[in-house]
Amino acid sequence: MSFTTLVDGATLAAHLDDAGWRVFDCRHQLADPAAGEAAYAAGHLPGASFLHLDRDLSGPMTGSNGRHPLPDPQRLAARLAAAGVSNSTQVVAYDDAGGMIAGRLWWLLRWLGHERVALLDGGIQGWQAAGRPLSRAVPQPAPAVFAAAPRDWVVDADTLLANLDGGELCVVDARSPDRFRGENETLDRVGGHIPGARNRFFRDNLDADGCFRPAAELRREFSALLAGVAPAQVVMQCGSGVSACHNLLAMEIAGLPGARLYAGSWSEWCSDPARPVVA
């Protein structure tokens, strides 16, 4: 059996010694980029390797392509292969932020054509709350062969700009409601949102324990938000293309696949003063 959206802690615990499974710690703090790696060194799930949001799951910034540009797909594939991921490996990603960072790895692997990837529901907090152990040992997996086949799942700024009048695409912003309104903006140079965008705060996908809410609830809420727009016409964005992946995962769980990602997101959009802003 393969897992393509979520996996629970009990299931993962039963597969920790499975050679066909690889686990990745994706913890990261936007305000302290070294914090995730330090947390990993202090203790992580047994057998887990670390992937850094900036170094591994993003490409170089140019000043106009957002804070977390997509990595080169072949470079990412080589990084994953070196960490023991083949095209048949079951990958599990986790973090300590409700899946906000781990969701990026989930989406990136799917973008590369790899279906067998799931988020650890409840993250490392749920793992520890169940009394399961952590480790400080750094695994040394045997390198594998991973052939990437990137999918056409990315929408660029020019496409969205051209869509402002036609309205064929529905943009959904995963940032908090206050940032969406242009308030309390501390990460980007301009506050506000893309004209016509709708707001779905990614944390609304989670319950009080930090697990994803039931599929039926997610489907009902996303269907209400989209108001008849087909998932294939939906473009997810956030501040830098990270938490938007959380909404993409939630839609997949809800049985509403097909939405795409504006990877540059708000940090790219607002870098060009010629692009319109609603604040």
Care to describe what's here?
This protein is of the alpha/beta class. The protein has ten helices and nine strands. It folds into two domains: 6-129, 3-Layer(aba) Sandwich (Oxidized Rhodanese, domain 1), CATH 3.40.250; 157-269, Oxidized Rhodanese, domain 1. It has a five-stranded parallel sheet with strand order 1-5-4-2-3.
Summarize the structure.
The chain is of the alpha/beta class and about 280 residues long.
Tally the helices: what do you get?
10
The end-to-end span amounts to 47 Å
- In the CATH scheme, the class of the largest domain would be Alpha Beta
**Record field, number of beta strands:** 9
Oligomer type = single chain
What topology, given as strand order, has the largest sheet? 1-5-4-2-3
Main pleated sheet: 5 strands, parallel
Topology:
Layout: E1 6-7, H1 9-14, E2 21-25, H2 35-42, E3 49-50, H3 73-82, E4 90-94, H4 102-111, E5 117-120, H5 123-129, H6 157-166, E6 170-173, H7 177-180, E7 198-199, H8 215-226, E8 234-237, H9 244-253, E9 260-261, H10 265-269
Task: From the structure above, extract its key features.
single chain, 279 residues, alpha/beta, Oxidized Rhodanese, domain 1, five-stranded parallel β-sheet, 10 helices, 9 strands, 29% helix
